[in-house]
Specification:
The chain is an alpha+beta fold and about 110 residues long. Helices cover about 30% and strands about 35% of the residues. It has a single domain, classed as Frataxin/CyaY (Metal Transport, Frataxin, Chain A), CATH 3.30.920. The chain contains two helices and six strands. Strand 5 and strand 6 form a beta hairpin. The protein is globular, with a radius of gyration of 13 Å. The two termini are about 20 Å apart.
């Protein structure tokens, strides 16, 4: 996949994520930053950063519990280490940091 195709795919996924965050009932704020970065901030001051990493052709997730990398595969974004679904991992990380159950249906 070339850089332009990846950026288009990642940007579409990040826009989709932004829509899911809008409909989420958990208590957090988020901000879209330049360069394909979403920053989520929770009441306890912790943050989750989601961004595209063009050189690796991945979406990266940085949370209190660690860093995770996801590649596109058959219309989903799957973890490079364990094949975990991006939205499942993000939901788990958000739940941990928000102190309440969060479920993002990707």
């Amino acid at each position: 996949m070339d850089e332009a195709d990846f950026n288009a795919l990642a940007d579409a996924e990040l826009a989709r994520l932004e829509g899911l965050l809008e409909g989420c009932d958990a208590d957090f704020d988020y901000e879209v930053k330049p360069g394909g970065v979403l920053e989520l901030e929770f009441d306890n001051g912790t943050k989750i950063i989601v961004n595209r990493h063009t050189a690796a052709r991945e979406i990266w997730l940085a949370a209190k519990s660690g860093g995770f990398h996801f590649r596109p595969d058959g219309g989903r974004w799957l973890g490079t280490r364990d094949g975990a679904d991006f939205y499942a991992v993000l939901s788990r990380c958000m739940s941990e940091q928000a102190g309440e159950a969060v479920s993002l249906a990707g």
